Amino acid sequence: MAQIISFDVPSSTGTFRAAINMAGEISGSYTDIHGASHGFLRKRDGNIVVFDVPNANNTSPVAINSRGQITGWYTNTSGGGGKGFLRGPDGSILTIALPNSTQTIPTAMNAKGEITGHYGDSSGPSHGFVRRPDGSFLTFDIPNSTETSSNGITPGCVTVGQWGDASHHLHGFLRQKNGAVTTFDVPNSTSTTAMAITPAGLVMGRYNDVNGQPQCFLRHSTIAKITIPGAVSATPWAINPAGDIVGVWADAAGNHSFLRAASGSITAIDVAGATYTQPVGLNAAGQTTGYYSDANGHTHGFLRS
Question: How far is CA 95 from CA 56, 59, 85, 132, 150, in A?
Fold first, then answer.
């Protein structure tokens, strides 16, 4: 039977999370009494290390890899858009900003330390990028797009995300390391967003149906819509190498969290007594991390093993 552990960053007013790696280390953010966000690393033994990008007023981790590297974005008092950061296992922090960019937002990182995300500049609000471990950047736009956002990256530097057309409709894309791009849409959808990709190339994402409700899909050689019995809507948040998915679905009674195994079986993973449970990270061992709200409106992190 699965065990759920609740945790909070000491002296925080809310504990959130972003991701979990193979070792069970969790990275995320927490808020202080002033409403500012800071980063944290929860180690396997439960000890929590807090950190901030120097001179930042908000630090928001989004991914942690098997090496213990953490990436995310931050803002500072100078204003402007957010900038990226990379925190090493030794606690050192590098800032990430594309030249002449108005913002640089990492969204995912692979085991090699290659980071993908999106950035803005004077020519447009959103372009895709990959930051290599040596600090150099690859930038890209999907042909005929007005915006490009990259959300996932494999160990082989295949990226996935969404792009917008002139009518502001969103479509999914898969970009190979050599630059070859495949765009796709879920049939009968009004928008398609590729959110993540496994090492084997299985793409997980969400789409809006004809009623405007978010739903889940998987794409390999073909696109499969994922349905949850009784759900009006369903939003996936993470996928592991085996193809298991965690997310949130809704019906007339409210929101619920789920774990969908690669076999198709669905398990409820709501935290007992919570008014809302949001899973957002899932590793190869099947451990899930996320956050939940209690009856007093306080937010806590959780680990389900």
Answer: 11, 11, 4, 14, 19
